[in-house]
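Quick log. Single chain, no ligands specified.
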Amino acid sequence: MYSANHQTSTWRFFLRAGDLIAIILSFPLAYWTAYFWDAVPLPLVDRLTWINCLFIGFFNLYLFGVFGLYRWQSFIKIRLMLRLLALSIFTGTVVFIVLRSFLFPTEVLSISFGYLPDLLVNTCFIFLLVATLRISVFLFETQYLKSTRIECLAFVSWSDRMEPVLEGLIHNALSQASVTGFFSNPEHSALTPPPSLGFKELGALTDLRRLLQSNKITMLVLDLSDIGEMQLLMISEICSDLMVGIVLIPWTFDVWSRRLVMRKLNGVPTMVIPELALESFSNRILKRSVDIFGAILGIILSAPLIIVLGYLIKRESPGPIFYTQTRSGYRGKNFQIIKLRSMRLDANDGTGVTRAVENDPRRLKIGEFIRKWNLDEVPQFWNVLKGEMSLVGPRPEIYELIEELRETLHCYNLRHLCKPGLTGWAAVNGFRGNTSLEERIKYDQYYIENWSLTFDLKIILMTLRPPKNAY
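-> predicted structure:
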C-alpha cells in the first residue's frame, strides 16, 4: 500500500525502547524497595550481580520476541499482551534459577534464600513497568496519533469478501477510517453492494483518476476476483501517481490459509503460507509432552469411572463395554479409536456407519447419559498416550465418510494437518454431531492456524462446561 498521505508511527520501535527502559529501571527500583529500610543496605552487586542483571534483561527481551509480544495482535489486545508478558517473564525467571543452580551447584541454598527474594521483587517490577509503558504506547497510538491518521476508503464492485475487509479497516485501532463510496466496474456492472448498506456510488472505473481526486480518497479496496489484468494495471498506475493506498483481496482468499504472506524470491514477489506453529519441532515436542502428561493423568483419574460405567453397560447390553472404530488421523493415517459402547451391538446392521442423531433409537438407556456428558470419549486417553491423538485438536472423522466429505467440502482434508483431539475448538463451540460441517471445518482451520499452548488450555477449560449437541 502507498503511504505518502500520512506516515504511521513505528510502534514496534516504541515497544522495544520502552521494554528496554523498563527492564533497566526495574533493577534499582527492586533494590530500593527491598533494602530501603535496612540500616546498612548491601550493595546490589553483592545480591544480584550486574552480570545476572544483564542476562535477565537481554533474555527477557529475547523471550518477548519468542512469545510474540512484538506482533500486531498482542499490541492491540491488552489482555493478550498481559498474559503473554506474564508467561515470558515467568519463563525467564525459571530459566535463570535453573541455570544458576546448574552452573553453581554449591550455591543452591544461597540462591534459594539469597538471590530468590531479590529475583522475585525484580520480576514483579519488570512486569509492572513493562506493562505500564506498553499500555502507555498503546494509548498514545490509539488516542492521540489515531486522530492524525484519517483514511477515506472507497472500493470497487462488491463481493461477500468485501464486507469483512471493510469492517476490519473501519475498526482499525490505529486509524480513523470511513467509507466514502464505491466505483462500479463496467465489466461487472451487476456487482454492486445491497442498497440496505447505504454505500454511495461515486462513478465508474473509466473516470477513476478524477473521482479519486474530487472525493479525496486515500485508500482503494479491490477484489482481484472481479478485476481484469489490464484494469489492475490501470488502477495501480493511477493510485501510484495520486499516492492512494491500495488494499488487494486476492483470489486466494478462499484458499485454506488466511495467513498468506508476501515473500520475494530472486526479486519476484510470491504469496506463501509460512510455517504453522504446530509444524515447529519445539512446539511438537511441547505439545506431545503435555499430551503424555495429560493422558497418564486422565487414565488414572478415569479408571474408577470406566469400571462403574462398564458394569452398567454390561448389565443392560451383554457384550464388550468398549467399542472401536476406524478413524482418520494425522496426515490421513487411520487408527482405531476407543470408546465406551453407548449403543446396541446391532446399531449399524442394515444401515452401515452413520452419525448419531438427536434421540437416536440405537442408544442404550445408560448410553443416553454417557453421550450427553461425553463420557464415551474417556477411553481415548489411551489413544492420546499411544500418539494417535492429542488432547486438543479437530475431532477425528469416521473413516467411511472421509471420501464423500473430501469431494463435497472445500479444503476438508487440510484439517488432518494435526493430530485429531479428544476435544477441539469446534466441539466446545457446539459444532459436533448433526451440525454444520462447513462451520466445523472453519473452526478446525482456525485452531490449526492459531495454535498455542494457551489456546489448548482455554479449550480444555471450556470442555469442562456442559457440552452442546452431544447425543
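Residues 1-9, 39-48, 107-113 have pLDDT under 50 and may be disordered.
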